Amino acid sequence: MQVTATVSEGLKREFRVVVPVSDLAARAEARLDDLKGRVQINGFRPGKVPTAHLKKLYGRAVLAETIEQLVGETNQKIVEDNGFKLAMQPEVKLPEAENEAKAVFEGTADLDYTVAFEVLPTIQLADFKGIKVERPVAEPTEADVQSMLETMAKQNRPFEPKAEGAAADGDRLTISFVGTIDGEAFDGGTADGIQLELGSKSFIPGFEDQLLGAKAGEERLVKVTFPTNYMSEKLAGKDAEFSVTVNAIEQPGERAIDEEFAKMVGFEDMPKLKAAITERLKGEYATASRRKVKRALLDALDEKHAFDLPKTLVDQEFDSVWRQITQDLEGRGKTFADDDTTEEKAREEYRKIAERRVRLGLVLAEIGEKAQIKITDDEVTRAVVERARQFPGQEQLVWEYYRKTPEALAQLRAPIFEEKVVDYILELADVTEKPVTKDDLFKDNDDEEEA
Q1: Where are the alpha helices (DSSP H) in 371-405?
Q2: Residues 6+ apart with CB under 8 A from 54
Q3: DSSP states of 221-245 as a string?
């Protein structure tokens, strides 16, 4: 076997591999000998089938299997011998000319192919002790607690039948519906006796708005588009129609914020309820603070690291981002002009976002590897449980989805790993706390999550 490097430019590598026909024949013969003791052919006793007869029946298939195995082994050896870390799976180019391919598969010519791939760049990590970031912190005020009490009272307000009039924002409807896509009913699209509070945004975007003004007993056809990030890949981004029957309409009443209310929501008295709310708000503020300091840290890491990026990884990330953007525009019935930009400018902007994501992903992966950061099975299980809790009534469905979908499980592992690496860096970086108001703490959160 002859392996020759033909391309070594930046992160691109390409090799030409020539495997003599004699080597292919020897491996194929060994495979046929192995088959001899396992196949059953009419007219022959087990293990007594002549090799020539086996070759006539299975020769071409065995040679194809041999070539596939040999290419895999050779590519792996090239990677290991050169100490490469691959950005993507190797791209193999076998003989394309019909006569050449035929000769190889008939065992009369050498196997001559090329393998190309991109390697991961060598990353010189920055000194984390030189990274300075601020951690914004805020404490819940009495006004914050009171605002939360008012929200809870609204969520627990009583409802009473609406004697007359059409459904308005805030009313609670009892509905039945049948959903279809392209005229066909789909799993999970049919339900009866479901309660829906208009304005709660608990259903698919656009669903509730189309029920405003409905009356009890009325039937309406609701047309919506499932979000592109919907849990079910079969439904994500699809247009659907729901035949909805409004069975009943209830209007909201008032709920006093008093001792009785505290007991109704499970607390002994109002002071204990306020204490619980304060603790909950502290948790929310801590999460927002974490988001801010993480963004600042990632900005610093992005600024301190510059290296060539594997084009295949950037292209893959950009394609993923761009697909989400275009599907979102289509779902909203908008164009780039509606967002005060052009497709060309948008592509340029999201290309930079893709490059930033790949760069930071490689940096965090390098840090995690050097720090020997690992993800435990218990951590992944907790993530699945938390994900399932986000879909009340469908917990078992979510659990089975992740159990049967390794790719989805890997997507849960990635953020766990990222958070542990961020914790590791923050321990080494120069982090100072900065008191801020609640409004400042939550300002620009949407932009930060997008970035």
Answers
A1: 377-389, 395-404
A2: 32, 35, 36, 39
A3: EEEEE--TT-S-TTTTT-EEEEEEE
Query: 196 forms bridges with which residues in the sheet?
Result: 173
List of residues 6+ apart from 12 with CB closer than 8 A? 116, 117, 118
Phi, psi torsion values for 266, nearest 5 degrees: 100, 20
Residue holding tokens 């509606």? 338
Structure token pair of residue 253: 């009443």
**Domains contained in the chain, CATH given:** 2-118 (3.30.70.1050), 158-253 (3.10.50.40), 263-450 (1.10.3120.10)
Mean pLDDT on 138-152: 95
Burial of 46 (0-12, 13-18, 19+ CB in 10 A): exposed
Residue 327 has pLDDT above 70, yes or no: yes
Which candidate, 368, 356, 365, 364, places its Cα nearest to that of 450?
356
| Nearest Cα to Cα of residue 259 among 251, 250, 269, 244 | 269
For the record, the structure tokens of 411 come out as: 């997507």
Amino acid (one-letter) located at 311? K
Calculate ∠ Cα 356-362-363, nearest 5°.
90
Stretch 286-308: mean pLDDT: 95
Give the three-state DSSP class for 417: helix
Of 360, 345, 349, give the one whose Cα is nearest residue 313: 360
* Dihedral sign, Cα of residue 265, residue 269, residue 271, residue 276: negative
Region of residue 252 (left: phi > 0; alpha: psi -120 to 50; beta: else) = beta
Residues with Cβ < 8 Å from 245, sequence gap 6 or more?
Answer: 175, 176, 177, 217, 218, 219
41 alpha-carbon distance from chain centroid? 49
- 3 state SS of 265: coil
- How is residue 375 written in tokens? 């993800």
Predicted pLDDT of residue 339: 84
Q: Which helix (H) or strand (E) holds 261?
A: helix 259-264
Dist CA 236 CA 342 (whole Å): 26
Would you mind telling me the total number of residues written for the chain in this entry? Answer: 451
Residue recorded with tokens 């304060």 = 278
Cα 138 from chain centroid? 31
Residue pLDDT, tens place only, 369-397: 999 999 999 999 999 999 998 888 888 89
Q: Taking the model in full, what pTM does it have?
A: 0.72
Beta-carbon count within 10 A of 257 CB: 14
What is the C-alpha separation between 172 and 161, in angstroms, rounded? 9
